[in-house]
């Protein structure tokens, strides 16, 4: 294989003080290209959402199943504690609660 040639736009122009082309856009007198220029389309660019829906469903299930034991017990304990506190508060502020635990003023 032979190296590809550099693509340069513009035509002949004035040569600057140091032998560099100082003219049109794209031909700024840089070094010549070495090696082979090849272009390919990445697999991520071809199908950027390939398998997203399938992976999302199973990934959500996997992550949920790994975290449920860290989240569920404190939430259940908190729910039952709050229910007990609400019922206790309603009882203490009722006639029977005031009669049982109320103070004389």
Automatic annotation (TrEMBL):
Gene3D superfamilies hit by this protein: Cytochrome b-c1 complex subunit 8
Origin: domain of life: Eukaryota
What topology in the membrane does the UniProt record assign?
Single-pass membrane protein
A GO term (biological process) for this protein? mitochondrial electron transport, ubiquinol to cytochrome c
Where does this one sit in the cell? Mitochondrion inner membrane
> Any one cellular component term from GO for this entry?
mitochondrial inner membrane
Per UniProt, which keywords does this protein have? Answer: Electron transport, Membrane, Mitochondrion, Mitochondrion inner membrane, Respiratory chain, Transmembrane, Transmembrane helix, Transport
Query: What PANTHER family would the database entry show?
Result: CYTOCHROME B-C1 COMPLEX SUBUNIT 8 (PTHR12119:SF2), UBIQUINOL-CYTOCHROME C REDUCTASE COMPLEX UBIQUINONE-BINDING PROTEIN QP-C (PTHR12119)
- Name the family the entry cites: Belongs to the UQCRQ/QCR8 family.
Assembly and interaction partners: Component of the ubiquinol-cytochrome c oxidoreductase (cytochrome b-c1 complex, complex III, CIII), a multisubunit enzyme composed of 3 respiratory subunits cytochrome b, cytochrome c1 and Rieske protein, 2 core protein subunits, and additional low-molecular weight protein subunits. The complex exists as an obligatory dimer and forms supercomplexes (SCs) in the inner mitochondrial membrane with cytochrome c oxidase (complex IV, CIV).
Function according to Swiss-Prot or TrEMBL: Component of the ubiquinol-cytochrome c oxidoreductase, a multisubunit transmembrane complex that is part of the mitochondrial electron transport chain which drives oxidative phosphorylation. The complex plays an important role in the uptake of multiple carbon sources present in different host niches.
Name under which the protein is recorded: Cytochrome b-c1 complex subunit 8
């Amino acid at each position: 294989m032979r190296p590809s040639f550099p693509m340069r736009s513009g035509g002949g122009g004035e040569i600057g003080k140091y032998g560099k082309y100082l003219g049109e856009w794209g031909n700024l007198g840089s070094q010549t290209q070495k090696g082979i220029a090849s272009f390919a389309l990445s697999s991520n660019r071809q199908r950027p959402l390939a398998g997203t829906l399938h992976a999302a469903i199973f990934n959500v299930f996997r992550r949920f199943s790994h975290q449920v034991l860290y989240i569920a017990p404190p939430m259940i304990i908190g729910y039952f504690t709050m229910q007990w506190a609400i019922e206790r508060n309603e009882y203490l502020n009722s006639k029977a609660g005031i009669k049982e635990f109320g103070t004389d003023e």
